[in-house]
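Internal tracking record. Fields below are filled automatically when a chain is submitted to the structure queue. Please do not edit lines marked as system-generated. If the sequence contains nonstandard residues, flag them in the REMARKS field before resubmitting.
Queue: standard
Priority: normal
Entity type: single polypeptide chain
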Amino acid sequence: MLELIMIIFTLYTLVKVYISVMQIGYISEEKNQEAVLMSQDKYQVAGEYAIKKERLGLVSTLVDYMMFVWWVTVGFHWLSSTLQTDNSVTDAVVFLFGFFAISYLVGLPFELYQTFKLDKEYGFSKTTLKLYIVDQLKSIAMFFLFGGAIFYALAWIVVNVESWWLWGFGLLFSLAVLINVIYPTIIAPIFNKFTPLEEGELKKDIENMMKRVGLKSDGVFVLDASKRDSRLNAYFGGLGKSKRVVLFDTLMEKLTNKELLAVLGHELGHFSHGDIWKNIAMMGALLFTSLFLLGNLPTELFIEMKVGDNAGVEIAMMILLLPLLSFIFTPIMSYISRHNEYAADEFGSELGGKENLVSALMKLIEENKSFPKSHPLFAFFYYTHPPVIERLKELGYDAHAVNEMAQGLPDDGIFTFFNKEESSN
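SYSTEM-GENERATED OUTPUT FOLLOWS
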C-alpha cells in the first residue's frame, strides 16, 4: 500500500513540475514579444518576475516531494520514536506539533527568499526584519493556542470515535465557517491596523452602492498594507454582522475614486451572487471527500511505515495527502471561480462604469506586475481569475485595440484615455 501511495504522489508531483516548466517556457518566450496592456519595459519586468516566482515554486514542489518521501519512509517512525508517542490524545498533539515544526523550518527558507530577496528586488516587499519576526511570533503563538486546541479535539475524535472522519469533518467545517466570521474583526487586526474610512464623498458613494445591493456591513476600513507590501487589493470579509469593506491603502493611493467604486462594484457582485457561500460549499465538499478517503486508509499502510496505531500519524498523513486530493479538484474549482469572476465583472461594470473597471484592471496588473498572459494548461489548473485579456474581451474591449488607442500618450496615458472617454459620455 505504501508503494502505491508513493507512486501516486510521484505522478502528482511530475504533473505539477510539467505544468510549471510549460509556464516558465511560455513566459520566457512571450515576454520578448510585443507588449500587451503595458509598456514594453514593464511587460518584460512582469514576465521576469513571473518566471522567477514560478522557478521558486518549482524548487519548493521538489522539496515537498522529498519531504513526503522522507516522512512516509523514515520521518513518521523517527519522530514517533523520538517523542515516544503512543495512541493517547496528548501524545498525538505533541506529535503534530513536532510534525508542523519540522515542516515550518523546511519551508522557511523559501518564504524568506520570497519576502526579502525576490519581492524586494521587484519593489513589492516593504517589510522589515523586525516586523517579519514580530509577525512570525504572533503566528506561532496563535498556532500553539488555537492549533493545539484543534489538534486535541481532532485527536480525541480519532482515538475515541469509530467513524472519526465524519465527526472530524463536522468539527473542521464548523471551524472554517467560524474563522470566516471572526477573521475581519478578531484575527486580521492582530497583524494590521484598520482605520475607518474618513467621512466624505467616497464613503458616501460606497455606502450608497452597498445599500443598492442590500449589503449591511460592519463599516468601511482602510488597511495599512503598505508597511508590508506595495501591491494593490481590496476585499469584503466576514459573514453575518462581521462583514466589512476593506481597502488597502496602496489601492487608494493609485486608483481614482471612480475606479475604486468600480472595483468595489466587482466585489459587491460576488456578494450579490452568493459567491462566498458557494466557495464555502465547495470547500465543504472537498473537505468531506478528502476526509472520507483519507479517514479510511488501510491499517497495513501505517504498519508499513512502522508506526502502528497512532492518531497523530493518521492526522499528519491526512495533511500530507490533502494537497494531492485538492489538486484533482483544482481545475473544477478554478473553472467555477473564473465563471464567478466574469459575472462579478459584469455586475461591477454596471454599478461603477465599464470604463472605470477596465482602467482599474489595467492599473492593477501594472502596479502588481502581473504578466497578462499564461500557458493554457497553467491557467486551466491555477487561474481562479480569468486572464485580464479575456476579462477585457468580456467587457467589450480588445487588448491590442486598447494598446493602439494609447499609443503616443504619456506613461499613464492609457488611464487618461479612459478617464477622457468617461467624461465625454
